Amino acid sequence: MPPLIGSWPSPEALHAESLDSQPERSEQAAGARSAASHPAPSTVNSPDSIPGDWQEPQEGILRGMCGRILQILARMLPGAQSLRVMLHRARGVKIGKGVWIGYDVVLDTARPDLITIEDGVAISMRALVIAHFKEQRGVRIEREAFIGPGAIVLPGVIVGRGAVVKAGSVVSQSVPPMTIVQGNPAVPVARCGIAFRQDVSMKLFSRHLQPLAAAPTSARKEAESGSTSAGS
What we know:
This protein has one domain (61-225): Hexapeptide repeat proteins (UDP N-Acetylglucosamine Acyltransferase, domain 1). Helix content is 29%, strand content 19%. It is built from five helices and 17 strands. The protein has helices at residues 11-37, 61-76, 83-91, 202-207, 217-225; strands at residues 94-95, 100-101, 106-107, 115-117, 122-123, 128-129, 132-133, 136-137, 139-141, 146-147, 152-153, 157-159, 164-165, 170-171, 179-182, 187-192, 209-211. The strands form four sheets. Strands 2-5-10-13-15-16-17 form a seven-stranded mixed beta sheet. Strands 1-4-9-12 form a four-stranded parallel beta sheet, with helices on one face. The chain is flat, with a radius of gyration of 35 Å.
């Protein structure tokens, strides 16, 4: 029977093989550590990997030029109930009867056709109505509403019948009918007993105000005192 000992490697050979494999194992370990400390970038949540879903419609050059000329004229010329109203109608704004538009009012320059102003509305000087941004489109100001000086009305908003937007407010949500809103963003501060029409005095209007308990203290005091900051 042949000796079995010859079929096993000698201790010297095992030692030599162990020495030869050590650099390879070291390289593998170093590679694993490097991969752990520098993970491959993921594109699943990368902003650049998300395709866009919106394309702004192109504005015609001739129409845009005419609209802007009419807008400039409407901002500077007299005639709050006549000439300014006529110029904005020519731009495409849908305007009812008895509307009052103050000096330097801006009604969306590019898309005036998205604005509807109903009968008896008053828009005070330097107010700004923006009717489109991305997919948010359209502004409706219902009859006998009052927009104070320097107020900003943003897209997608309905200003309810007889509502009052106080001076300098930013309206980002629809305003309930017969409600006074104030601030940035504008929030309800009082209920109107009557609409703030052009034939209604401040004294009569203030007498019918009902301050809201949830309104900020300063705004509630103004409503109680009859101050609406609603200049013309």
